[in-house]
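hey can u check if this looks right to u? its 266 residues, i copy pasted from the old doc so theres a chance i mangled smth
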Amino acid sequence: MAKITVQNTQITVIKQNEDDYISLTDMLKAKDGEFFFSNWLRNRNTIEFLGIWERLMNPNFNCAEFDIIKSQAGLNRFRLSAKEWTEKTNAIGIISKAGRYGGTYAHKDIAFEFAMWISPEFKVYLIREFQRLKDEEQKQLGWTAKRELSKINYRIHTDAIKQNLIPEEVTAAQASIIYAEEADVLNVAMFGQTAKQWREAHPELKGNIRDYASINELICLANMENINAVLIDEGVPQGDRLVRLNQIAINQMRVLENDDNRNLLK
């Protein structure tokens, strides 16, 4: 569940079968006067729009029942609730939910159409705020992906350090220093600075140097962790490993940054 604010009206957005559904109940609060969802649903143009959408998106849509409803739409006596619409036609575009966040929700395609009934201006702002929400979700997704990517070869790397570089009898504090030193071998090879140097240069930022790395840089880091583990197993001295890893980082970044698909990686 998420919330967006459109012209001082807070509107709930939920996920339903991986699709975004927007609260029509919340949207109604932005319309002046006493109006209900059924006022919009009884309109013939609304029924025709919903029917077209359901035929495209819903293989189980009851077209026969829809034709009956369509024939009555627009008449003075015609009334239709969201529940009746869903039950009679097996519609999926509009749903009713109970509980704390209950109300009538509609697929974003239908919700944007409903917004026009409130006002053209409201529709424009709704689309803009919804897109802003989607952009924020993508940023969060990218951050999570980057963090997960940075962990791909972490276990292999730390196991190599433990087996080859840490003596059998050391304290936990001493072992952590060795792990940190090896992590900084990668940091220096990739970024040209240690974690401590980065923190001192960026006291205003939270997290660590890898939190602010690009996807391309994290791909290189993941590869370098694996390569460094192999070099450690082979007994290559730390200084020599640093030089080789730096060369690898330069070559791999050159390939990634010049790749025709680099926009997919960033």
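Strands lie at 2-6, 9-16, 19-23, 94-97, 103-107.
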